[in-house]
Amino acid sequence: LTRLDKKSSSLNPVAPPIQLRQIQINDRDTILNSTYSLRYNQNNLTISFRAICFRCFGAQTYKYQMIGLSDKWRAIDGSQEKLRFNSLPPNHYQLTIYALNEDGVESKEPIVIKFQIHPPYWQSWWVRGIILIIIFSFLGWQYQMTVDLMMTRIGQGVKTPWVAEKLPLQIFIVGQLAFLGIPAEITTVAGQRLKA
After folding, report:
1. Contacts (Cβ under 8 Å, ≥6 apart) of 185
2. Residue 194: CA atoms inside 13 Å, Cβ hemisphere, count?
3. Which of 45, 57, 134, 167 has the most crowded CB, counting CB atoms within 10 A?
4. Residue 21 · residue 65 · CB < 8 Å
5. Do 144 and 137 meet the contact criterion of CB atoms below 8 Å apart?
6. 115-143 mean pLDDT
7. Which alpha helices (H) appear in the chain, and where do they start and end?
8. 15-29 burial string, b = 16+ CB within 10 Å, else e?
9. Rounded to whole angstroms, how far apart are CA atoms 196 and 183?
């Protein structure tokens, strides 16, 4: 014989534990860890989990937050026990997942997984620095070659429409600063020429 107290609460105060079941990187199973360091092309993640809730009868829900992608908490249905993140950009991420029972009591211990997706080598600061050095070196070399050619032709007395008799450069000195002035000609849309 059982006695039922109608004054007692029918709410479920038990916090459902949550288990991490599987992590896939680019649709391949991997060992379960709490931190992952991944290459730039290992950026498709699937995380499977499950709440242990005997009284819920499938009425449990989940909430998760993926810091690095969004700071918002998102709720998902209890039947969806899998999260998929496709084409994550290089960054540091932290995924936190809670299970909630049918009365909204959440897990005491969430699932916390940290991911670091490294950028490809061509996006690193040192490759960008090398590219800038190469570009500026080429531009400096090109300028120096042009000036040397003009000086050679001026010294030989060659008169062509492409070589000026005097270098079109002016140096303005103001205090301890020196400015290089290059005369230019601008053509407007109406076809009028403006000299600078």
Report:
1. 193, 194, 195, 196
2. 6
3. 45
4. no
5. no
6. 89
7. 125-156
8. bbebebeebebeeee
9. 6
Residues in contact with 91: Cβ distance below 8 Å, sequence separation at least 6, in sequence order: 68, 69, 116, 117
SS3 7: coil
Q: Sign of torsion, CA 96 97 101 104?
A: positive
Evaluate if pTM is beyond 0.70.
Answer: no
pLDDT tens digit string along 39-72?
999 999 999 999 988 776 667 899 999 999 999 9
Decide: 46 and 81 in contact? Cβ < 8 Å.
no
- DSSP letter (8 states) at residue 71: S
Using alpha carbons, select from 89, 51, 95, 92 the residue that is nearest to residue 74: 95
Q: How far apart are CA 107 and CA 101, in angstroms?
A: 8
| 122: helix, strand or coil | helix
